[in-house]
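Objective 1b. Sequence-to-structure analysis of PspC domain-containing protein.
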Amino acid sequence: MNDFNTPMHQRRLHRSNTDRFVGGVLGGIAETYGWNPTLVRLIFVVSFLLPGPQILAYIIAWFIMPQG
């Protein structure tokens, strides 16, 4: 877990070990920035109403984000 006293630019984006449904990407984003993981997942699911490569972006993030 990140120390939220650490400045935002010094936090490392990572996949979550504890808060994961598939690959831990969205849980890791939520942990890094101190956001609610349910809200991050909800925004991701709602984004499917918009055109774009959401699944492709998730898969790429899954491979390039380090395990936290």
